[in-house]
Write a structure and sequence with these properties.
- It is built from six helices and 14 strands.
- By secondary structure, it is an alpha+beta fold.
- It folds into two domains: about 130 residues, Sirohaem synthase, central domain (Double Stranded RNA Binding Domain, 2-Layer Sandwich); about 55 residues, no CATH class.
- The strands form four sheets. The chain has a six-stranded antiparallel β-sheet with strand order 2-3-4-5-1-6, covered by helices on one side.
- Helix 2 packs across helix 3.
- The chain starts with 15 loop residues before the first strand and ends with a helix.
- About 20% of the residues are buried.
- The N terminus is likely disordered.
- Keywords: Polyamine biosynthesis, Transferase.
Length: about 250
């Protein structure tokens, strides 16, 4: 189907990479100021290779936080140590020339690639402070088109949307059509993904195509969603098609 345009400019592009590491320590490793300091120092030694320097320390209810910055590169880091022994490391990097990628981090861990910035991050996963740790995939923030959404049960999905084709807040829902190089145009309602142009087989399944003929028939569509069903039905030359949806803007596209 032919889609409209959003009629507004996207924000300026700026990608901020967020690298997150989770480390599980034995509770006894942080049950005293001295032991907690030793655990943090193990991670801090690795952070120093990134040029990160401790700037602030703060005791919180049930945790301690440590702030680090690298003024020359723009990196910042937050370490949080919980009384349960759980330690988190969050590094943010806004440098457009940063080599920080998921693939490079994996290569470092498996092949010991000598890349200072990525290598140091890989070392965090292999730090001496714990026998059990986890590197979480990079989160890329600040893109002009939002690429992170959740499923209905709150699991995170990452897409490759590069353009806002249409966006409108109707009386009933927030309607978005975003373009993806891999999916084509994709419909989102209240930020939940409905259907994309690549889902044509699903649409044909609803129609029982090609076993059912719609030629010269009157057809009623309840909740037409992305309009894909309407578009495909019209190719069958029906007598008349009625599509009912709570948002008129959805019927347009």
């Amino acid at each position: 189907p032919v889609l409209g345009t959003s009629g507004h400019d996207s924000p300026a592009e700026m990608t901020v990479r967020t690298a997150m590491m989770d480390v599980w320590l034995d509770k006894s490793a942080v049950d005293s100021p001295k032991r907690r300091s030793t655990a943090v120092k193990s991670v801090e030694d690795v952070l120093s290779t990134l040029g990160l320097v401790r700037k602030h320390e703060q005791a919180m209810a049930g945790s301690h936080i440590y702030l680090y910055t690298a003024e020359s590169t723009g990196l910042s880091c937050l370490i949080t140590v919980y009384s349960s022994g759980f330690l988190t490391v969050t590094i943010e990097d806004a440098n457009p020339d940063s080599p920080l990628t998921n693939q490079l981090c994996i290569q470092y861990k498996t092949n010991s690639i000598n890349i200072k910035r990525v290598g140091a991050l890989g070392s965090l996963v292999q730090s001496q402070v714990s026998a059990q740790s986890l590197g979480i995939p990079l989160i890329k923030r600040g893109a002009p088109v939002p690429n992170y959404y959740t499923t209905s049960d709150e699991r995170i999905l990452e897409y490759d949307f590069d353009k806002i084709v249409f966006e409108e807040k109707s009386k009933y829902q927030h309607v978005k059509i975003l373009h993806s190089p891999t999916l084509g145009n994709c419909l989102l309602l209240d930020d939940l993904q409905n259907l994309a142009e690549k889902d044509i087989n699903y649409t044909h399944g609803l129609m029982k195509y090609p076993s059912v003929s719609y030629a010269d028939k009157e057809v009623l569509i309840l909740g037409g969603g992305d309009g894909g069903l309407l578009c495909e039905l019209l190719k069958e030359k029906p007598k008349y098609v009625t599509m009912v949806d709570i948002s008129f803007s959805v019927c347009l596209f």
